[in-house]
Amino acid sequence: MQADSPSRLTAADVVRLAGGRLVGAAEVAVTGVAPLDRAGPGDLSFVASSRYLSHLERSRAAVVLCTPEFASAPGPETRIVVDDPYAALLVVVPVLYPAAPRDAGVHPTAIIGPGTRWDGAVSIGAYTVIGRDVQLGRDVVIGSGCVIGDGVEIGDGSVLYPQVVCYPGAIVGARVILHAGVRLASDGFGYVPGASGQEHRKIPHVGRCHVGDDVEVGANTTIDRGSVDDTVIGNGTKIDNLVQIGHNVRIGARCIIMAQVGISGSTIVEDECIIAGQAGLAGHFTVGRGARIAAQSGVDRHVPPGTTVFGYPARERREYLRTLAAMNRLARIAGQLEHLVEQHGQDTR
């Protein structure tokens, strides 16, 4: 959460923070960050690709972070030449937009169950409900309207935005960010089908939902608890909005999972995988370490480590491109056949 009023930095200050080489006036000041085409005379901007050179030339930005190849391109006079403008922004933005201070304490409308305890300062917002025997680490922040079930554990420095719900069985590591509407440790979708005319029988869910350290989970994402095993999210993994992760799923460390992905139960996603938006993964198989799954792919089998898969059903890149090429050829052949049939019909008349 950032403060409403940004700080003021000179170009010289930015160089001290991010390194690099200053071109132009050291005293030029910035109070915000904006893209090249919308930046004003008080903004810091950046360019790292030749696709944006036309924007650079017309930009009104006060200071521009750029790679060496764009140091003398037309545009704003004051520049800071760095190897990686994005990495430089990661250093500068938190200083330019310092975090808003959070007041420690428990809001008078919050309900705290017996046996709940915390170490040091915590912040618990309005109308939050915390159950029995909950453990909160140091500097935990719980936004308004959250519900924390019995026995939940939340590690040091974690932040829960408004209306997060952690069912019993959730274990949240340190420095975790849960955005608004996240649901952790709800029951997975598991039933034993009934015979004709009989009810489906619900499979009990007694496993936990274990979220590791330094994980971020986007708004309205749901992560189910395990049935008889645990659902696990590895350290450093980042999950976007509107993702569904089923029961007994195990996701490794430092994965990136983008919006609207669905992962069915008992799937294993190993370390450092990337799953792009709207991909769907069927259950009970493994995505190998470092694999990449393209947007809107449907994965129905094991994915070897380090491979990239596309399409539905998802296939390795070369196989997918060959299939597309074959389909295009088939379409042309079908058109030629239709033409021949039409000609044959005319000839017979």
What does this structure look like?
- The protein is of the alpha/beta class and 349 residues long.
- The protein has a domain of 88 residues: 3-Layer(aba) Sandwich (Udp-n-acetylmuramoylalanyl-d-glutamate--2,6- Diaminopimelate Ligase, Chain: A, domain 1).
- The strands form six sheets. The protein has a twelve-stranded mixed β-sheet.
- Helix 2 links the parallel strand 5 and strand 6.
- The longest helix is centred in the C-terminal third of the chain and has 32 residues.
- 36% of the residues are buried.
- The mean pLDDT is 93.
In short:
With 349 residues, the protein is α/β, with parallel strands linked by helices.
What topology emerges from the helices and strands here?
Layout: E1 9-10, H1 11-18, E2 21-23, E3 29-30, E4 32-33, E5 43-47, H2 53-58, E6 63-66, E7 79-81, H3 85-96, E8 105-106, E9 111-112, E10 117-118, E11 123-124, E12 129-130, E13 135-136, E14 141-142, E15 147-148, E16 153-154, E17 159-160, E18 165-166, E19 170-172, E20 177-178, E21 183-186, E22 191-192, E23 201-202, E24 209-211, E25 216-217, E26 222-224, E27 231-233, E28 238-239, E29 244-245, E30 250-251, E31 256-257, E32 262-263, E33 268-269, E34 274-275, E35 280-281, E36 286-287, E37 292-293, E38 298-299, E39 308-310, E40 315-316, H4 317-348
Parallel strand pairs: 4-5, 5-6, 6-7, 8-11, 9-12, 10-13, 11-14, 12-15, 13-16, 14-17, 15-18, 16-19, 17-20, 18-21, 19-24, 20-25, 21-26, 24-27, 25-28, 26-29, 27-30, 28-31, 29-32, 30-33, 31-34, 32-35, 33-36, 34-37, 35-38, 37-39
Antiparallel strand pairs: 1-3, 2-7, 22-23, 39-40
